[in-house]
Amino acid sequence: MVGKGVQPMLAELLLFSLSVPLVYAHALTLSASFFEVYYLDAKGKLLACYRLAEGSPDQVTINMRRVVENALNANASLVVLSHNHPSGVALPSKEDNQTTLQIKRALADIGVQLVDHVIVADGDFVCLRDNGLLD
Q1: How many other CB atoms are found less than 10 A from the CB of residue 90?
Q2: CA 106/CA 20 separation, integer angstroms
Q3: DSSP state, 77?
Q4: Which helix (H) or strand (E) segment is 55 a member of?
Q5: Mapping DSSP to helix (H, G, I), strand (E, B) and coil, where does residue 21 land?
Q6: How much is the pTM?
Q7: Which distant-in-sequence residues (6+ apart) come within 8 Å of 93 by Cβ?
Q8: What angle do CA 34, 30, 101 make, to 5 degrees?
Q9: Rounded to the nearest 10 degrees, what angle do helices 94-109 and 64-74 cross at?
Q10: Would you list the DSSP string of 24-88?
Q11: Which of 9, 74, 77, 83 has its Cα between 20 and 30 A from that of 41?
Q12: What is the pLDDT of residues 81-117, one digit of tens each?
């Protein structure tokens, strides 16, 4: 599932990002939204994972500064985002896309690459890289 323009070294990371919904399958039963961030080194080794926010069934507030600070503290080169949609529909909202692009820019400013943003819902998931948002 390697998209156009994706460097070969990222193939393994994309497979990792596809496993995110499996790792947090228990979160699908939550009635509230959550937002998690995986911090990886340049080889794709997981350095840290944090649940940075929990919110209402239809909204979660993300602290961009914490996303960036954690990347710096972990000495991360790569980041994978994940959040759920308790509504049961994994399709990204306009706000999901905007927030993803804002985080991508903030991380790029410190030399960290956003690899993917995975949205999980009701046994389904969507990878924003596959949707072309992160190309």
Answers
A1: 18
A2: 22
A3: S
A4: none
A5: helix
A6: 0.79
A7: none
A8: 25
A9: 40
A10: TGGGGG-SS-EEEEEEE-TT--EEEEEEEEE-BTTB----HHHHHHHHHHHT-SEEEEEEE-TTS
A11: 83
A12: 988 888 888 889 899 899 999 999 999 999 999 988 8
* Amino acid letter, residue 65: R
Phi, psi (degrees; rounded to nearest 5) at 60: -140, 140
The runs of H, that is alpha helices, within 1-135 are 11-23, 64-74, 94-109
Residue 57 and residue 87 in contact, taking contact as beta carbons nearer than 8 Å: yes
90 and 125 Cβ atoms separated by less than 8 Å: yes
Task: Identify the DSSP state of 33.
Answer: -
For the chain, residues with pLDDT lower than 50 are 1-9, 21-23, 26
According to DSSP, the β-strands at 46-54 and 113-121 are unpaired
Q: Is 113 helix (H, G, I), strand (E, B) or coil?
A: strand
77, 39 Cβ separation under 8 angstroms: no
Q: Look up tokens 């209402």; give the residue.
A: 56
